[in-house]
Write a structure and sequence with these properties.
Shape: globular
Number of domains: 1
Bound molecules: beta-D-glucopyranose
Order of helices and strands: EEHHHEHHEHHEHHEHEEEHEHEEEHEHE
CATH superfamily: Glycosidases
Number of strands: 15
Strand order of the largest sheet: 2-3-4-5-6-7-10-11
Helix content: 40-55%
Oligomer: single chain
Structural class: alpha/beta
Distance between the termini: 31 Å
């Protein structure tokens, strides 16, 4: 590792999602998934981090750690518990949170949809329904009218590709369907939702006198590398997976041009529907056929995902080649139960950012506190802060201490790297 110094315009923070941290809500699709016994360790998303009640303490802790920017989400099922019925007290709750962030000088980036739906919306078919776009827009309007004077940066939808593929193709997430045509329909509708929300947020905030809106969708990207770099079959599938999982959807969301097999059923006009590129990056897939895998001997995290820091630059570079705007890394982090190698992971990804000449302006570490990790429940720990889920006690991990020093020192000195980042990674031992 060589010493790194951050550019002045790189801001560092943390990211989270409402359902993964708030607790207390039983009106959403993931609580229902839990009731159906689908969470691997049986843990209940209505527990999570109890952040809905403890948010002031969590914000204080963020401040103490020097967090500069915070990406978080609102829970739609709380805001609109029934179709067309909005709960003002919940909107006020999020308003109080935004006011507090302002006081603490932590800049918010607000996510409107992060995997979870209100139950009534889920029951009507969620984003596979032709009515979903208008219904989602009505919710977006409420939130922006209520918080738009305090928040200027928005993520409309988190990872539409992951949401669609896991829920509608693999059937592992709610609603558990396995249909390629519905998956494509959901992806198409989500792209329309993004575009319409992009336009609406700009319009509403401009009307209210704010000209500084920045809106995008958070794109989950990974590197798809052919297992045999010269093997035509591997190369074909690596390309196909990249196109179908991430490239077509990016084009539809960012430009309104829907490549086949996506469908522009809402007749969105071509345009520029992004003010920055938002990338969630975790790993590289090694491809030998239509499903992805992990290279033998690759360094991996506790979920078996390859650790490949340069991939962040490869993904960001791939997107930036076509769509030129500042880049925000809206998620990057790793599952490391013992917090053995997280500091090294963070420092290597930050080093890749600093050594590239891409216009990366934000790095949001995923995540602040260990939380409810979807199918894995409470058993997969991604946080800089440890949580005892029973007592809800928070304690800053060594990686959290490292990240906090990195922010304060504006870079990573040799001394800091020596003290925190010398851990060995574990290796993938399975043959593909
Ligand atoms: C999601 C997060 C999730 C993280 C780690 C991302 O794809 O946006 O909600 O916790 O990955 O699995």
């Amino acid at each position: 590792m060589s010493e790194i110094k951050f550019k002045k315009n790189l801001l560092l923070g943390v990211a989270s999602a409402a359902t993964q941290i708030e607790g207390g809500d039983e009106n959403n699709s993931w609580f229902d998934w839990f009731l159906q016994g689908k969470i691997k360790d049986g843990s209940n998303p209505a527990r999570a981090n109890d952040h809905y009640r403890r948010w002031r303490d969590d914000f204080r802790l963020m401040r103490q750690m020097g967090i500069q920017v915070y990406r978080f989400g609102v829970e739609w099922s709380r805001i609109e518990p029934e179709n067309g019925v909005f709960d003002q007290s919940v909107l006020n709750h999020y308003r109080d949170m935004c006011l507090e962030l302002k006081k603490l000088d932590i800049k918010p980036l607000l996510t409107l949809h992060h995997f979870t739906n209100p139950l009534w919306f889920e029951k009507m078919g969620a984003f596979s329904s032709p009515d979903s776009v208008a219904i989602f827009l009505r919710f977006v309007e409420k939130v922006v009218i209520h918080l738009g004077d305090l928040v200027s940066e928005f993520i409309t939808i988190n990872e539409p590709n992951v949401y669609a593929v896991f829920g509608y193709l693999y059937g592992e997430w709610p609603p558990g369907q396995k249909s390629l045509s519905v998956t494509l329909n959901v992806m198409s509708n989500l792209a329309s939702c993004h575009i319409k929300a992009y336009r609406l947020i700009h319009e509403l905030r401009e009307k209210a006198g704010f000209a500084d809106s920045k809106v995008s969708f958070a794109h989950h990207m990974r590197v798809f590398a052919p297992a045999g770099p010269r093997n035509p079959w591997h190369r074909f599938w690596a390309r196909m997976l990249s196109l179908s999982f991430q490239d077509w959807l990016a084009k539809a969301c960012l430009t309104g041009v829907f490549p086949f097999p996506l469908r522009n059923s809402e007749k969105m006009p071509p345009g520029h529907y992004y003010d920055f590129l938002a990338i969630n990056y975790y790993t590289r897939s090694t491809v030998r056929g239509p499903s992805d895998g992990v290279r033998e001997g690759a360094p991996v995290n506790d979920l078996g995902w390859e650790i490949y820091p340069q991939g962040l630059i490869e993904c960001a570079g791939q997107l930036a080649k076509t769509y030129q705007k500042p880049i925000y890394i809206t998620e990057n982090g790793t599952c490391d139960h013992e917090d053995r190698f997280r500091s090294r992971y963070v420092s290597e990804h930050l080093q890749a950012i600093c050594q590239s000449d891409l216009p990366i302006e934000r790095y949001y570490h995923w995540c602040f506190c260990d939380n409810f990790e979807w199918l894995e429940g409470e058993s997969a720990r991604f946080g800089l802060v440890h949580i005892d889920f029973e007592t809800q006690e928070r304690s800053i991990k060594r990686s959290g201490e490292f990240y906090s020093r990195v922010i304060r020192e504006g870079g990573i000195s040799d001394e800091l790297a020596d003290a925190y980042c010398r851990q060995e990674y574990q290796q993938n031992r399975s043959q593909q």
